[in-house]
Sequence to fold (413 residues):
Amino acid sequence: MTVIQIHAPTSNSDDEEIEQFYQDLEQTINDKAKKDILVIQGDWNAKIGSKESTGWEGTTGDFGVGKTKDRGIMLLEFAKTHHLVVANTLHNHKLSRRTTWHSPDGVTHNQRDYILMDRRFQTGINRPKTRTFKKSDIGSDHDPAMMTFRMRLSKEKKVSHRRAKFDLEKLKNSELAKNTKEEPNQLKILQKCEERRELKKNRFTNNENLDQYRKAKEEVKRAIIKAKDEWVEKQAEDVEQSLAVNNSRKAYNVLKSLTREKIRSKADILGSEVRAAIIKLKRNKAPGFDNLPAKLINCGGEPSVKTLHLLCNRILQTGKWPTQWTQSILIPIPKKKMSKNCSEHRTISLISHPSKVLLTIILNRIKPGIEEILDESQAGFRKDRSTVEQILNLRLLSESQRNHQKNVFLNRL
Fold:
């Protein structure tokens, strides 16, 4: 809201001074923010008059004072040009609540002070409470005029982030395993490897079986080499396309992935570790930022194990976690009903379920080393251990000291 306080030139001023006043006021209006509600108030030194709304509908009301003068017409023209309404002429108050100026002899009473505001917001004006206040001890021949305005702000619409719901009951259908999509070349190579594995069992029974095994072995080698060449060719095409569209960063990353030496860690994550971690995932838990339910991973079978196995090893080698694995959703839960204070809430954090698989693997790997370091007195958060003995010792010590009327100090680390 922009409020402009003015004092117009008096009746003794010439027309040029009046025109300059309205030009300066118009410039001030143009400088305000367009979204602001405009209110202009003050001593206009003009008379709009009563029952003068004919021809000025929407600009003034019928409840002014006196007769319209030339300065009043200039004021109405200015208000109509800028889509303003004279607020203190809209309600039929008694005369003493409309007049704003009194002559020194107390005989003449006029209305010279007006409050103008944006016409589109006039429904927020409380007309009965927009009036002049008499007997105000302010040492002036003017009475203060007040407008009561109620601003109705529209509520900001909340953007609904609807999360996709998975029909997890369909996972119980064993036929869904057939819908697993794999690359055609990979599928052919796997089929040839399976045929070679079957021929290997009986390769020494006769020469014909041995020849078939050797032939299948060579076919597998050629297929792998061909698939590798096709993959390298595809990477080269990606580099060329990236350079053609001036995407040098993508081209550099592809070349870097092809040329750098890949040092495999001796402690690569095993598929059995991933499988065991997936089994430990608790079902019916809310998903994290990536919207992947734990039940979906549990029922995914071998495809889920293979995918997470490759992903976990990739994270282990590069040291970079997926962005969605590092984000969590904080849910505030009130400790008391209908509580609005932040201190009376606790929060839970929803993290990504696939990240829990890798965290479980890391925890299982560091547990043996931690068990050797921890003291025997440490019982919290340890398997098959309880803090009952420690609590009992503290209670016995405190009771013993109280019996001897001595102070007990507990140092919590």
